[in-house]
Amino acid sequence: MNRLTLNVRRAVLAVLGLVWLFPTYLIIANAVRPADDYDPSDAVKPPSSLGLLDNVSQAWDRTAVGDTLLSTLLYSVVSPAVAVLLGALAGYAIVVLRLKHGFAWFVVIFAGTVVPFQMLLIPLFVGYSEVSLYDSQLGLIIIYSAINVPLAALVMRNFFGNVAVSIFEAARLDGASTFRIFWRIYLPLSSAALAAVFILEFTFVWNDLLFGLTLSQSETVRPVWAELSALTTDVYAGTPVPIALAAGLVVSLPTVVLFLATQRLFTRGLTLAQF
């Protein structure tokens, strides 16, 4: 590759990178500017002063963000943990225990990712209303766990397929039960893969809007993004754009911090799964 081609490639990549980062710049620039300094026709210019803390304070006063943050943390921790455990059990049964028609069962589990989530909203709303799960934390934990199981099953199936069968056979000869082998040997071996899936699913649940908006309404149950979406409705029609952007920016920080703090573990876990 000659020098001219290399320079052209770098220039193209730089331009594409700037295009990709431009929306992020708009969000940050308008989230940190004072609310009364926002002008839609001049949104690209850098802020003349900083008003992020004031914007966040106003968003906090206008919504029940405090209550919804606790609920969102509950969903984001419990549901991925349940999904990861169920996915690991499914992968263990299919690959290690060689479940009869195992691949067919895997297809059935993974088929849940084929249906767009939007198609599930009305059936879920009707079903949850009939069994008293609508607007309940248990109801949201169940749906978040269910929609995350297929990904966990895929990753753990791939991971367990790379573990030597002799480990299972040796443990069985020593008298260990199938569940004890799973709990004491296979789960510890797959800790990195489990962590990678948990991080992905934590991020998905934390950032969810559709299910939270459809299946909840009270402040103690509603996820944080569903609560913040109220800032853009008719009820809060007078909410300046910087306030809504600042609230969204701050609420996004936990997932960013989690990913940055665990990026090595995340990369290692997905590498071990060998997609």
Task: Give an overview of the whole structure.
There is one protein chain. This protein has helices at residues 3-32, 52-62, 65-96, 102-110, 121-130, 137-160, 165-173, 178-189, 191-206, 210-215, 224-228, 241-261, 263-273. It has 275 residues and is mainly alpha-helical. It has two domains: 1-62 and 240-274, no CATH class; 63-223, MetI-like fold (Orthogonal Bundle), CATH 1.10.3720.10.
List keywords for this structure.
275 residues, mainly alpha, MetI-like fold, 2 domains, 13 helices, 71% helix, membrane, transmembrane, Carbohydrate ABC transporter membrane protein 2, CUT1 family
| Count of helical regions | 13
Helix fraction by DSSP (H/I, runs of at least 4): over 70%
Note the run of SSEs as H and E.
Answer: HHHHHHHHHHHHH
CATH superfamily of the largest domain: MetI-like
Segments where pLDDT lies below 50 for 5+ residues? none
